[in-house]
Amino acid sequence: MNKQFTPAKTDPEGALLGACMVDPQGYWRIADLVTPEDFTEADNVALFREIAKRARAGVPIDPVTMGDEWGHYALQLANATPGSSHIRAYGEMIAKRATERRVQVAGQRIAKLRGDDSYSEAHRVLAACAPKDASAVRHASEYMRDAVKEMRAKLDAETEITGIRTGLHKLDAMTGGLQRGDLIILAARPSMGKTALSLQLALEAAKHGYPVLFFSQEMTGSQLVHRALAAEGGVPFEHVNRPKFITDEEWVRVTGAADSLQKLPLQIDQSCGITVETVGARARQCNSTQRLGLIVIDYLQYMRMPRADNQSSAIEEVTRTLKQLAKELMVPVLLLSQLNRDLESRADKRPMLSDLRGSGAIEQDADLVLMIYRDEIYNPSSEHKGFAEILIRKQRNGCVGVVPTRAKLEVMRFFDAEELPHVPTPERGRRFAGFSSARDRAAGD
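and the corresponding structure tokens:
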């Protein structure tokens, strides 16, 4: 039985539908660009749904078969279409107009928002309007050119450090530095020094001219700067925090550190309980004025989780969104995280990936997972006193292993160290630091 439709209209919607019926591959040429909801006319929505259904089922789509079931409307569209050569252009026009309509509707919804969560909700509403990336699929040759260009740049470089230096030479040797586009997890139990290490990495990046955005949810901006003064001045944090104990020589170092820190491209956001949408919005705002080099978030469990069925799903949305942000801005995102308390009941308390608190998505979405272990926290008489192990538990594009450091947390810093005494063999992993060049490393493989 034929369906009754209004007379066909000559516009991009009708032209696209007609092109889909005169070209057997027409639908697949715009399937990544247009959805039924992008059409304005109810008749067009229904017809496009049918075309999509037939295309996925492998059923013929042509003026005869469509006209037999869908009446004169389908035939008129097909007959009025000169061909399918401009079908992408029709699709782009439809998608653009649909985005404009969604933005207008979103604006009306945003204008009515109220309450503490209105800012985050506004970003969610606006994010839903984002158009599809029609250029997402590219021929391998385009990526090949980029890959070869990157390889040549690395070959010509005077150093093998391809990312942002951490200031810890052995960590740089194993990772190549903090890489753009990576989501990096820094996890540890309390008192291990993860905030101190993250601040040290941030300051090192800023010293090399990379603008840094530091989200400090646990501490105020002033408290974080106190720690930075101790680290840069080499002055005990206790003295910075209690200035009456500072010696004349320490005052000189603190004022010198203050002068240096003021010149660094370091921005601090001390908001509490921020959402991942807020992080994204503020990062994009900062990136629009000066290209960011590093984003640090201290820490995951202090963030306000999105609505989800359970905690694991909520954390998964956060880590996935932060990974997307890293790729979009091409900046390393360093996310601090707590670890499960269960590890403290084990004989060997060195943390593993399974100790990440809340969700397996943290491990899944991360490109690099670093964990800190200080044996003296659990064993005060340990021969490891003053040492800290930075455990590389996952590295998507490199090795795993242990970076030995000396932890001088009285001045909020980690320093390079020689091999740790009696580190179990399984913890050592393979090290890049022992090879002198990329060619040597390849031979070592």
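(Above: one complete record from the training split.) Residues 12 and 90 are 5 Å apart (CA to CA).
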